[in-house]
Write a structure and sequence with these properties.
Layout lengths: L2 E2 L17 H17 L1 E3 L2 E3 L1 E3 L5 E3 L8 H15 L2 H28 L14 H15 L2 H11 L4 H5 L10 H17 L7 H16 L13 H14 L5 H13 L2 E2 L4 E2 L18 H13 L7 H15 L13 H15 L2 H15 L10 E4 L3 E4 L7 H12 L11
Antiparallel strand pairs: 1-2, 2-3, 4-5, 6-7, 8-9
Helix pairs in contact: 1-2, 1-15, 2-3, 2-4, 2-15, 3-4, 4-5, 4-7, 5-7, 7-8, 7-9, 9-10, 9-11, 11-12, 11-13, 13-14, 13-15
């Protein structure tokens, strides 16, 4: 039986000696306090409730997108930013139960079901999400046990299973899984641990190549679900393994996405099967996320050097620069997601105007009281107010956005860095 434990605020007095922006730090501190107040803490663990489709509430899943892993990462980032030991400790409590459960599940699969087909997920949901989150937490908190748990989960991510995955996306599929494995490999090296992930990493790259070479591949545009995400994952793989010439595959993904461009409307279709252009303009789909991927490739001096690719970049910059205010403040499709995209693209393309736009959007949200944020709201048992605590759709992501707007050198979790 879990219980709600009220405790002194974690962050009501931000560490003014840190190098961050005072307004964003104040806003982040308020949200971190809210997250802590929503926690159900029991015997060294902490959980948060999420609303299900039938309007009942249950423990959040263990993933990054809308689960405990995302909350833990936001808390850990604040612990690092503000030297807040309580926040770092709560981050570990947030993943305590999921780590135990997933470790037991991985051991059972390895011992009893070594050939069973498993949906491995991507960088934001599924097993891949936990691998990324625990590896990134380990680097943030300097905790090698988290990497060891991530490597335990990697034991079920075998080359044979990777070859049978049917989802290619960053959120749920092989692109995100590849970035998770790269992060685990980096974290293992950081702590002097043997990872032996080279075969799995290469197989992810080969699986993405196979998707791109398949004439029946149902390609779609966008970052979270589409070809821009594949291109970005492959260029990250090229960073690690330039001899594999993965940058050519990244260019092939961008070329396939270009086929979805409608020059009359100066807009991208979602897929070849749909005539309508993408209405969204956010991280998951639409020009903003597509520009995010291309800017990262430009920053690595790996962007295709041809007039058509340059024109793509110009159109995407134009469409992203004029983003309208959103009805939501969260990361996935909201105002703060737009702010972090503009900040990252501005840094990658050396465009101070985009960085200034990001700051302006962030400050407009920071001026609102936490209870006035545009994130999903509900009531539990008719007495307890509830704001969605999740990372991509709720409070944890809002806190993280303020932290990164304040400290742009921190890892960009929306890029699975």
């Amino acid at each position: 039986m879990t219980s709600t434990v009220q405790a002194p605020p974690l962050a009501s007095a931000p560490n003014t000696s840190s190098a961050g922006d005072a307004e964003f730090d104040r806003a982040a501190a308020e949200i971190i306090d809210l997250l802590r107040g929503h926690a159900r803490r029991h015997r060294g663990s902490a959980i948060w409730l999420g609303r299900k489709s039938d309007d009942t509430f249950s423990e959040l899943p263990p993933n990054l997108y809308a689960g405990s892993a995302g909350i833990a990462l936001a808390l850990a980032q604040w612990g690092k930013a503000d030297s807040c030991a309580q926040s770092s400790r709560l981050a570990l409590e947030a993943v305590l139960l999921p780590r135990r459960r997933l470790k037991a599940l991985a051991a059972k699969i390895v011992e009893e079901q070594p050939r069973k087909d498993i949906r491995l997920g991507g960088g934001f949901r599924g097993i891949g999400s936990a691998i990324y989150a625990y590896s990134r937490l380990a680097l943030c908190l300097e905790d090698s046990e988290l990497v060891e748990d991530a490597l335990e989960l990697c034991r079920i991510v075998t080359p044979n299973r990777i070859q049978r995955q049917q989802n290619w996306s960053l959120i749920d599929g092989v692109s995100g899984l590849l970035l998770s494995l790269l992060t685990a490999h980096r974290a293992a090296k950081h702590f002097g641990l043997e990872s032996s992930l080279e075969a799995q990493i290469e197989t992810c790259g080969e699986r993405l190549r196979a998707f791109l070479d398949d004439p029946s591949f149902p390609c779609s545009s966008g970052f979270g679900h589409g070809l821009s995400g594949i291109a970005y994952a492959l260029i990250r793989l090229h960073d690690e393994d330039p001899e594999g010439n993965w940058h050519w595959d990244a260019h092939a993904a961008l070329a396939q996405e270009r086929l979805l461009f409608d020059p009359r409307l100066r807009a991208w279709k979602k897929s070849p099967a749909k005539d309508q252009t993408v209405a969204e303009n956010a991280w998951c789909e639409g020009p903003a996320g597509m520009l995010l991927a291309r800017a990262a490739i430009v920053a690595r001096d790996q962007y295709p050097q041809d007039p058509i690719s340059a024109a793509d970049l110009d159109v995407l910059q134009e469409q992203t620069r004029w983003l309208a205010a959103r009805r939501q403040d969260h990361l996935c499709c909201g105002n703060l997601g737009q702010a972090l995209i503009l900040q990252q693209v501005g840094r990658d393309l050396d465009d101070q105007e985009l960085i200034d736009d990001a700051q302006q959007i962030g400050r407009a949200v920071a001026k609102r009281a936490p209870e006035s944020l545009f994130v999903p709201k509900a009531t539990i048992h008719e007495t307890e107010a509830w704001l969605d605590p999740a990372f991509m759709t709720g409070l944890a992501g809002v806190a993280y956005a303020f932290i990164r707007l304040s400290r742009p050198s921190f890892a960009n979790l929306m890029l699975l860095e």
